[in-house]
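Students often ask why we bother encoding 3D structure as a string. The short answer is that it lets us treat folding as translation between two languages. Here is a chain of 81 residues written in the first language.
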Amino acid sequence: MQHNLLENEDICKIIAKNIRKYRKLKGITQKQLADITGYSYAYIRRVESMNYNNNYSILTLYNICIALDIEISSLFDNKDI
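And here it is in the second language, the structure alphabet:
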């Protein structure tokens, strides 16, 4: 099985798209996600931004996944986004 290596910018875009997708599927706003996770609204906006090259901690991704009730692996799926 061959894996394609992604650049940091590419994986950040995939993560941002998936966070936005799952947040909308859950029916919550960025402000509500910020309130649930304890992060600021501005930070959640940056996390979902396609133009912002994020370097998230695993803890940040974990907390967002808990709030969205998804598996962390879902954030890395580049299908259907």
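Translate back mentally: DSSP finds four helices and no strands in the chain. Keep this in mind for the problem set.
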